[in-house]
Specification:
The protein is an alpha+beta fold. It has three domains: 2-161 and 382-426 and 430-611 and 646-816, no CATH class; 175-246, Alpha-Beta Plaits, CATH 3.30.70; 261-364, Serine Threonine Protein Phosphatase 5, Tetratricopeptide repeat, CATH 1.25.40.10. The chain has ten helices and 35 strands. The strands form four sheets. It has a 22-stranded antiparallel beta barrel. Helix 4 (276-291) packs antiparallel against helix 5 and helix 7 packs antiparallel against helix 8. The longest helix is centred in the first third of the chain and has 26 residues, at 2-27. It is globular and about 95 Å long. 46% of the residues are buried.
Amino acid sequence: MCRFAERLTAAWAASSLLLLLGLACGTALSASPASTGAASPFDARLVQLIDTDERDGHTNVTIDFACTVRYISNAPLNHGTSTAITLRLGPDCGAFLVAVTPELPLVGGASLVSGARLDSVVPGEVTLELTWTRDLDFVMAPTSNGRGLRVRLLSASTSRKAGGYVTTNEAPDGYAVNLDSSYEAFSSAQVEAAATAMNTQAYVSEIDIEDKHWYRLRVGPYTSRHDAERVLQVAQAQYPHAWVAINDESSAIEAVAHSGVIAAPAQIPTDPPLSDEARAGLLQQARTALEKHQYPEAIEILTRLQRQSEFPGRAQAQELIGLARERAGQLAHAKAEYEEYLRRYPDGAAADRVRARLQTLVAASLAPRSTGNFGGAAQQDHWTMAGSAAFTYQYGQDQISSGGTTTTTNSLDAILVYGDLLIRERGERYDFTARVDAGYTANLVTTPGGSQDRTTLAYIELSDRHTGLTERLGRQTLASEGVIGLFDGLFVGYQVASNLTFSAAAGFPAYTSYSQFSSSDRFGTIAAEYGPYRGVWVFDGYLYDEQSADATERRALGLQTRYSEPGRSAVVLADYDFFFQQLNALTLMGNLKVGSHWVLGFDADHRRSPLLLLSNALIGQSSPDLSTLKSLFTPSQIKQLAQDRTATSNTGVLSATRPIGERWQLIADASLLELSGTPASGGVAATASTGLDKNVSLQISGSSLIQASDLHFIGVRYDNSPQQRSVTLSWDARFVLPGAWRLGPRFSVEHLNDPALGGVQYLYLPEVRGDWTGKKSVFEIDAGYQLQQQQTLLGATPVPGQDERHLYAQATYRLRF
């Protein structure tokens, strides 16, 4: 206990400075915007925050945007090393509806999310691509406020409490190098020759494609595409048709060599035999200790059972002791126990599960992973530090030509400096974490405004593995407790059992990372999560209350149910505000694998837009706050004004994906969108409904077409709404260059028919992207030129109208340590 007290004192001293620095960033500048719920006017970023939160058995990814977004589709839907999420921007997105500069958001937290990128081809629509470090199952759902997404990574999560990597996924990594393919099986000699030539593990993968059975000779797996591409360059000397395979394993990897596995000596009975009742009682005690995270106690009990002669529950005890040692961070011992299970019970009921766990531990102990990532397995009783720093320069120029007159303005000229630092100490019982994500934006444009600092996260956290208690204090974000964006305050979680968790949080909403600390608004929430139930169901619920001054902003009950198993998944989210007695959001999302090739997805979403809050009554009013508005209207009138200013959004989406051959994939989706109008009241004019917006898109992606491991995306999109019609064609490619460089040219053209503009518009967008990836650093560049030409009709003759040009460029250097 004294030893822990010394550690805690040292940790508190180290993290207090971090926490004070982070909180100071949120309060230092008087120019920082108040908590209005809107993004800073000087912040050109649509993505405000991407953060990861490691839990026991899964990882939550929180994505917050500067304005409301509507989920359209994502591909792949629920399994792979990445997913591209298509989103439609809401009416409050302002300038983002016209043009969105590509963004490379930094990801804080765990190592499972290796990268993020935001792009826009069609005005009013964006694509956010998230990349994982390995092959994962995942589900996603929008937040109740409509300004975020929550992605849950399943099956392969870094365990916060145990310090070891725990998964039941059969393919722990998403990248491999495909050396050769054949209709005939490869011999052991061929596999061993490949392993020797490439100096790594080789294996044979099998897959059925269009009624043909293929055998594929491969090396890997690898945690990043960059590592796989380096191996590819070497492999092509002996295997000229080699290419990078991404997330396409259909069965467990059978590696030729299992390096890193410690052989387990056979257990010899040494204790006097116990009765069957006593053994059953000890086994139950071990299970209870595991559920309470009392791993040393569980290991001690299970070791006693190992010293018994063979009995009916002996196989269960052998599996459980491997699991207990794994969760306690004793990975070498866990491997040995799993090996012992397979030696003694090769056809046991849990043999497949044990093989999957052992395979994951083996993969984790192969060649060193890329460094500088959060959440990597830490040594027991050891302080660790990880972090990243980034420097970004952004430039944008607008030019408008009309009637022989040209006007040029600088729309963007900014420098962004960002840092993310995490300090962690893992003990036998306690885990301590201190973390700060902060940055500074220097606005160089000579327009009203200025530079600002920002604090995304700044907190300290203490977890007790024995009791299941976790406390976190500071600026933070939560995944499912109904909180709006960031907040400054306290979070407490209690894991009652392995499948039941309670949590509570209270504090002051921060809304954006640029918000200074303010106590004008306050909230409290309690939540519970149960699952997995029968291995496929997870149930979440929360109660949320927010107050602004002496008035209730929002008081809601939220329920979420997730169902996930191979080939199908679904998410249902409901949020009911019983202060307004209104349904705030109801969402149903899911996907289903049909046959051996097709995957169908669906999304039905009904919500209030923006989120129903009492402060919505201020929309269109001259009053700066609710206190001033109370002098003009009664409380019941203000409540009605808030409902009148809040529209209703309805979205429906159907999508389908299908592989074509070994290197092609087809992605199609159709969606319906509608935003209701709002009535006139309180001196504010009515707004009209947008009507029903219908759009259809088709995309074909292929790899290794021009060179090994290149990627190509060819798409067409048709949009038809009461206001306008448009057709968009796009091509996006990615090529590998020597010296760890990648190049991504892109081009799109849109034909827009908008009667309100008096003619048609053509939008051309050429763009080039490039990046260089080192062991601990990344350099990324983006540049594009958007040309928008308008034509009006003079009788039947097209007449040139206004031309608009937008040039943008940005460069980012990131360092991980």
